Amino acid sequence: PLFAGMNGSAIKNFSCVIYNVFLMNCTWQAGRNAPADTQYFLYWQKSRDENEMECELYVKDENHRNMGCIFQNVSIGIEKAYFLVNGSSKDSLIQFYEEFIDLYKIEKLMPPSNITVNCDDIKNDCIIQWQRPQISHSNKDMCFKYEINIKYK
Protein backbone atom coordinates (compact mmCIF):
# COMPACT_ATOMS: atom_id res chain seq x y z
CA PRO A 1 0.00 0.00 0.00
CA LEU A 2 1.03 3.59 -0.61
CA PHE A 3 1.03 4.67 3.03
CA ALA A 4 2.68 1.62 4.57
CA GLY A 5 3.75 2.20 8.14
CA MET A 6 2.28 2.84 11.53
CA ASN A 7 -0.44 5.51 11.71
CA GLY A 8 0.85 8.74 13.30
CA SER A 9 4.50 7.89 12.61
CA ALA A 10 4.95 10.40 9.75
CA ILE A 11 6.34 13.82 10.61
CA LYS A 12 4.01 16.73 11.33
CA ASN A 13 4.19 20.55 11.16
CA PHE A 14 6.49 20.59 8.13
CA SER A 15 7.38 24.12 7.05
CA CYS A 16 10.07 25.88 5.02
CA VAL A 17 11.16 29.49 4.63
CA ILE A 18 13.65 31.12 2.24
CA TYR A 19 15.65 34.02 3.70
CA ASN A 20 18.81 36.04 3.00
CA VAL A 21 18.13 35.47 -0.73
CA PHE A 22 19.89 32.09 -1.02
CA LEU A 23 19.15 30.15 2.18
CA MET A 24 16.21 27.86 2.89
CA ASN A 25 15.35 26.37 6.25
CA CYS A 26 12.88 23.50 6.64
CA THR A 27 11.70 22.12 9.98
CA TRP A 28 9.35 19.39 11.18
CA GLN A 29 8.32 17.51 14.30
CA ALA A 30 8.37 13.79 14.96
CA GLY A 31 5.11 11.94 14.46
CA ARG A 32 3.27 11.38 17.73
CA ASN A 33 3.44 7.57 17.35
CA ALA A 34 6.97 7.37 15.98
CA PRO A 35 9.23 5.05 18.01
CA ALA A 36 12.02 6.77 19.96
CA ASP A 37 14.71 5.46 17.59
CA THR A 38 13.05 6.90 14.46
CA GLN A 39 15.41 8.86 12.22
CA TYR A 40 14.01 11.11 9.48
CA PHE A 41 15.49 11.91 6.06
CA LEU A 42 14.49 14.80 3.79
CA TYR A 43 14.65 14.65 -0.02
CA TRP A 44 13.66 17.41 -2.37
CA GLN A 45 13.37 18.10 -6.07
CA LYS A 46 13.38 21.68 -7.32
CA SER A 47 11.58 20.76 -10.55
CA ARG A 48 10.66 17.70 -12.55
CA ASP A 49 13.81 18.05 -14.67
CA GLU A 50 16.18 17.99 -11.71
CA ASN A 51 17.36 15.07 -9.63
CA GLU A 52 15.96 14.38 -6.20
CA MET A 53 18.58 15.32 -3.59
CA GLU A 54 18.93 14.51 0.08
CA CYS A 55 19.44 17.27 2.62
CA GLU A 56 23.16 18.00 3.08
CA LEU A 57 22.96 19.86 6.38
CA TYR A 58 20.53 18.45 8.93
CA VAL A 59 19.52 20.26 12.11
CA LYS A 60 19.39 17.74 14.95
CA ASP A 61 17.65 17.71 18.32
CA GLU A 62 19.23 16.64 21.61
CA ASN A 63 18.61 12.97 20.72
CA HIS A 64 20.50 13.36 17.40
CA ARG A 65 17.25 13.02 15.51
CA ASN A 66 17.02 15.03 12.26
CA MET A 67 14.40 17.75 12.84
CA GLY A 68 15.27 20.21 10.10
CA CYS A 69 17.49 21.04 7.16
CA ILE A 70 19.39 24.12 5.98
CA PHE A 71 19.84 24.52 2.23
CA GLN A 72 22.40 26.85 0.72
CA ASN A 73 22.45 28.49 -2.74
CA VAL A 74 18.73 28.04 -3.32
CA SER A 75 17.18 29.66 -6.36
CA ILE A 76 13.49 29.70 -7.10
CA GLY A 77 12.20 28.14 -10.29
CA ILE A 78 8.74 28.46 -11.81
CA GLU A 79 7.57 24.96 -10.87
CA LYS A 80 6.49 23.79 -7.46
CA ALA A 81 9.27 22.06 -5.55
CA TYR A 82 8.67 18.55 -4.19
CA PHE A 83 9.60 17.62 -0.62
CA LEU A 84 9.61 14.11 0.86
CA VAL A 85 10.46 13.15 4.43
CA ASN A 86 10.70 9.47 5.21
CA GLY A 87 11.82 7.72 8.35
CA SER A 88 13.38 4.53 9.55
CA SER A 89 13.16 2.63 12.83
CA LYS A 90 14.15 -0.88 13.82
CA ASP A 91 10.79 -1.32 15.55
CA SER A 92 8.30 -0.50 12.80
CA LEU A 93 7.67 0.94 9.36
CA ILE A 94 7.44 4.74 9.34
CA GLN A 95 4.97 6.56 7.09
CA PHE A 96 6.39 9.15 4.73
CA TYR A 97 5.29 12.75 4.31
CA GLU A 98 5.27 14.63 1.00
CA GLU A 99 4.35 18.13 -0.11
CA PHE A 100 4.62 20.35 -3.20
CA ILE A 101 5.51 23.98 -2.40
CA ASP A 102 5.64 27.14 -4.53
CA LEU A 103 8.99 28.43 -3.35
CA TYR A 104 8.24 32.08 -4.14
CA LYS A 105 5.39 31.95 -1.60
CA ILE A 106 7.75 31.05 1.27
CA GLU A 107 10.42 33.66 0.57
CA LYS A 108 10.94 36.21 3.33
CA LEU A 109 12.04 39.36 1.55
CA MET A 110 15.12 41.32 2.57
CA PRO A 111 14.75 45.03 3.37
CA PRO A 112 15.63 47.55 0.67
CA SER A 113 19.32 48.44 0.54
CA ASN A 114 21.41 51.61 0.05
CA ILE A 115 18.84 53.90 1.61
CA THR A 116 19.79 57.57 1.31
CA VAL A 117 18.00 60.66 2.57
CA ASN A 118 18.84 64.13 1.25
CA CYS A 119 17.00 67.04 2.80
CA ASP A 120 16.92 70.60 1.53
CA ASP A 121 16.21 73.15 4.27
CA ILE A 122 15.49 75.96 1.84
CA LYS A 123 12.96 74.04 -0.27
CA ASN A 124 11.81 72.30 2.90
CA ASP A 125 11.76 68.85 1.29
CA CYS A 126 13.60 65.54 1.42
CA ILE A 127 14.41 62.98 -1.24
CA ILE A 128 14.56 59.39 0.00
CA GLN A 129 16.02 56.77 -2.32
CA TRP A 130 16.68 53.04 -2.03
CA GLN A 131 17.45 49.95 -4.04
CA ARG A 132 14.93 47.19 -4.48
CA PRO A 133 15.66 44.19 -2.22
CA GLN A 134 17.46 41.24 -3.75
CA ILE A 135 15.14 38.34 -4.35
CA SER A 136 15.76 34.68 -4.94
CA HIS A 137 13.41 34.16 -7.85
CA SER A 138 14.11 34.79 -11.45
CA ASN A 139 11.12 37.05 -12.09
CA LYS A 140 13.08 40.16 -11.21
CA ASP A 141 10.54 42.85 -12.08
CA MET A 142 7.82 41.88 -9.69
CA CYS A 143 5.72 44.70 -8.32
CA PHE A 144 7.15 45.85 -4.99
CA LYS A 145 5.21 48.06 -2.61
CA TYR A 146 7.07 50.12 -0.05
CA GLU A 147 5.92 51.84 3.09
CA ILE A 148 7.85 54.74 4.53
CA ASN A 149 7.40 55.54 8.18
CA ILE A 150 8.69 59.01 9.08
CA LYS A 151 9.01 59.95 12.73
CA TYR A 152 9.79 63.55 13.65
CA LYS A 153 12.17 63.90 16.55
TrEMBL record:
<keyword id="KW-0732">Signal</keyword>
<keyword id="KW-0472">Membrane</keyword>
<keyword id="KW-0812">Transmembrane</keyword>
<keyword id="KW-1133">Transmembrane helix</keyword>
<dbReference type="GO" id="GO:0009897">
    <property type="term" value="C:external side of plasma membrane"/>
</dbReference>
<keyword id="KW-0675">Receptor</keyword>
<dbReference type="Pfam" id="PF09240">
    <property type="entry name" value="IL6Ra-bind"/>
</dbReference>
<dbReference type="GO" id="GO:0004896">
    <property type="term" value="F:cytokine receptor activity"/>
</dbReference>
<feature type="domain" description="Type I cytokine receptor cytokine-binding">
    <location>
        <begin position="13"/>
        <end position="106"/>
    </location>
</feature>
<dbReference type="InterPro" id="IPR003532">
    <property type="entry name" value="Short_hematopoietin_rcpt_2_CS"/>
</dbReference>
<dbReference type="InterPro" id="IPR036116">
    <property type="entry name" value="FN3_sf"/>
</dbReference>
<protein>
    <submittedName>
        <fullName>CSF2R factor</fullName>
    </submittedName>
</protein>
<dbReference type="InterPro" id="IPR013783">
    <property type="entry name" value="Ig-like_fold"/>
</dbReference>
<dbReference type="InterPro" id="IPR015321">
    <property type="entry name" value="TypeI_recpt_CBD"/>
</dbReference>
<keyword id="KW-0325">Glycoprotein</keyword>
